[in-house]
Amino acid sequence: MENLLKVSGLNKSFGRKQVLHGVDFTVASGRVVGLVGPNGAGKSTIMKAILGLIPADAGQIAIAGVAVAITSHQALKHVGALIEYPGIYPFLTGRQHLQLFAAKRQRQTHIDEVVTDLGMGDYIDKSAKSYSLGMKQKLGIAQALVDHPQLVILDEPMNGLDPQAVKELREIIRRQAQAGVSFLISSHILSELEKVADDVLILDHGHIVQQSTMAALINSGGVVYVIKTTDDSAAKQALAAAHVPLADTTAVRVPITDSVVLNQALMALVKAGIAVQDVTKAQHDLERSFLDMIAKDKEAR
Ligand SMILES: Nc1ncnc2c1ncn2[C@@H]1O[C@H](COP(=O)(O)OP(=O)(O)OP(=O)(O)O)[C@@H](O)[C@H]1O
């Protein structure tokens, strides 16, 4: 797979505060890459540097092999972006905004496509001053997509969107990725990107803490059996005595490595006279493993 975006050794300080530390990653053609990290981790700073909006102190950024710098924007010709807040002119209609962003060739068709895909038909010809937060956000996303870019950079695009709009946005991203468009999408909530991203970059205090596929990240947390009993604290003691590992201390959660562990757990509970009321396979807790990863990285530094 060809790397459309390549970022290497990116350093950035604001005054005496270093906010990016040797950031390296790639985005391949047709991949959706999630950039996830807590508030202030440096997500927007990375995106602004890629877009040549702020100068990096060190490192290289290349799009389709062409270098980007604050004075060299040629590589950004086929890049669409929404960074922080959409730029909205209150007295223009949504359609007029899109006309500013769409190249002349097939302008009308491209605008109609994106308006339909994002379900903006009802208000696209009204002036933007009447738009809700979510409508403005959608207009910002439409601006990023309207010119058929090869690479789309979206900073927290789900902000302000209702669940239906989030679903529509996910669908449009997946459709475009299938057609070969690459995406770099930031969020401070990992689970927000669970259904849309192929790959994940986890960023903390300007360091890339983990880079993997979303599938590998989900599997790395493992699946757990949640056992409901009549007496959970006695159940935990019985399991500890029988050397059955627990996934965490909040409930009777047994990690699934193989079914033998579940058998051992159930036998230990039955032997201790604890009634098992229910056993369910629980969804992997993505947010918890994200927080664990950040905590581990903090300890290591
Ligand atoms: N122009 C600036 N001047 C000084 N400090 C800045 C500037 N821009 C960003 N920072 C600092 O750099 C750090 C990273 O900020 P950045 O906006 O990149 O984080 P983020 O991960 O996008 O956070 P959020 O999720 O809150 O948007 C923060 O500590 C922020 O205060």
From TrEMBL:
Keywords: ATP-binding, Nucleotide-binding, Transport
Keyword match Transferase: no
Gene3D superfamilies: P-loop containing nucleotide triphosphate hydrolases
Domain ABC transporter, chain residue ranges per copy: 5-230
Entry coiled-coil feature ranges: none
Family: Belongs to the ABC transporter superfamily.
Keyword Ubl conjugation: no
SUPFAM superfamilies xrefs: P-loop containing nucleoside triphosphate hydrolases
Highest rank taxon of the organism: Bacteria
SMART domains xrefs: AAA
UniProt-recorded Gene Ontology molecular function terms: ATP binding
Protein name listed in UniProt: ABC transporter ATP-binding protein
InterPro entries referenced in this protein's UniProt entry, alphabetically: AAA+_ATPase, ABC_transporter-like_ATP-bd, ABC_transporter-like_CS, P-loop_NTPase
Pfam family, one: ABC_tran
